[in-house]
Amino acid sequence: EEAVLEERFEARIDEGAFIEAKDWMPEHYRKTLVRQISQHAHSEIVGMLPEGNWISRAPTLKRKAILLAKIQDEAGHGLYLYSAGETLGTSRDQMLQALHTGKAKYSSIFNYPTLTWADVGVIGWLVDGAAIMNQIPLCRCSYAPYARAMIRVCKEESFHQRQGFDSLLVMMKEGTPEQRAMVQDATNRWWWPSLMMFGPPDADSPNTAQSMRWGIKRLSNDDLRQKFIDATVPQAEVLGVTLPDPHLQWNEERQHHDFGPIDWQEFWRVVNGEGPCNRERLAARVKAWDDGAWVREAALAHARKKNTAAEA
Ligand code: 3HC
Q1: Residue-wise pLDDT tens digits, 245-255
Q2: DSSP secondary structure string for all residues of 177-214
Q3: Which ranges does the record mark as transmembrane (predicted)?
């Protein structure tokens, strides 16, 4: 019985069908989606922290307003994604518990500090740029609720990337030598961690094969990373910054840019909790959860009162 159901499921995936929450799905398909969607949601929520550091320090009201809008968007992206996760039978409390106890991951990129105002622009340019590269194929993910969430997210993400690039362009073209040096310094610090956002090399990726088989992942980690590099090199030229990789060069034969080795020891160290800001980020999320307990209790008590009144 189970084997027949599994076969029919695989046939649907091969036909390019989209799976809805009420459709039959293999337990492993459900589990890997809960894993990926919840960690994607955690990334959005934790991703608010590095930038939040600069709301009170933004150089102009315009930049402050843009940054506030971007951070609010990310909170919304997190909520869409937690909701998509809930369609798979898990609960928000369970997903958040996994984050707070260190069981669940979030994107390693958010474990780096934002040292100057240029970091905010470079995060928009590189981190949101990488996120868009990764999220566009997810709009065609075989799990329909996740794909639908991604369509809305991608629209807002392109504003995030453009505002970051714009703020850097102003500093590079109209700024002082110190501001140009600040942009170059931020680019040096964020380039390699941004490449790591796409995940380990395909050969070291335990989830890629199955996720591609099931239409969850439409392009592999290495293919997306290469696409991102090819798209970003000309943008760095427009900005007038150099990317911190002496091996970076166009390969006419491959029709792609060759690039230098990525430090996968650093990647796994940061993923496993030893990055510059891991403890601080997780502590901030746990504190927010504890400080917000009374709001959740009050809302639940109010809902119960309203329901009993309605039943009476
Ligand atoms: N940071 C932390 N963990 C990472 C990682 C990273 N950059 N890249 C990979 N990993 C983890 C994986 O989660 C997996 O661990 P797990 O099995 O415990 O979950 C392990 O490393 C091996 O990686 P795989 O390549 O086998 O795992 P996946 O097939 O899941 O691929 C992925 C990793 C490409 C990140 C994929 O999960 C994915 O596309 N996720 C959705 C997109 C996402 O999460 N993006 C985060 C970007 S930040 C963001 O969106 C906020 C933006 O608005 C700024």
Answers
A1: 999 999 999 99
A2: HHHHHHHHHHHHHHHHHHHHTT-S-GGG-TTHHHHHHT
A3: none
Residue of the nearest CA to atom 12 in ligand 1? 199
Assess whether pLDDT exceeds 90 at residue 311. no
Nearest CA, atom 25, ligand 1: 205
Q: 249-251 and 256-258 as β-strands: parallel, antiparallel, unpaired?
A: antiparallel
Q: Whose CA is nearest to atom 38 of ligand 1?
A: 36
What confidence tens digit (pLDDT) does each residue in 168-206 have?
Answer: 999 999 999 999 999 999 999 999 999 999 999 999 999
Query: Using 50, 70 and 90 to split pLDDT, how confident is the model at 96?
Result: very high
User: In angstroms, what is the C-alpha Rg of the chain?
Assistant: 21
Query: Do the beta carbons of residue 17 and residue 29 sit within 8 Å?
Result: no
Its pTM stands at 0.96
Distance 93 CA to ligand 1 centre (A): 21
Q: Which residues line ligand 1 (CB under 6 A)?
A: 35-36, 39-40, 43-44, 47, 74, 77, 105, 107-108, 127-128, 131, 134, 157, 196-200, 205-208, 211, 217, 221, 271
Both tokens of 211, joined, read 């996720």
Q: Could you identify the residue written with the tokens 């046939």? A: 11
**What atom in ligand 1 is closest to the CA of residue 271?**
2
Q: Whose Cα sits closest to atom 11 in ligand 1?
A: 199
Cβ atoms 99, 285 nearer than 8 A: yes
User: Which tokens in the block code for residue 191?
Assistant: 């380039």
Nearest to 112 by CA among 188, 179, 181: 188
CA–CA gap between residue 128 and residue 175 (Å, rounded)? 23
Instruction: Provide the residue type at 230 as one letter.
Output: D
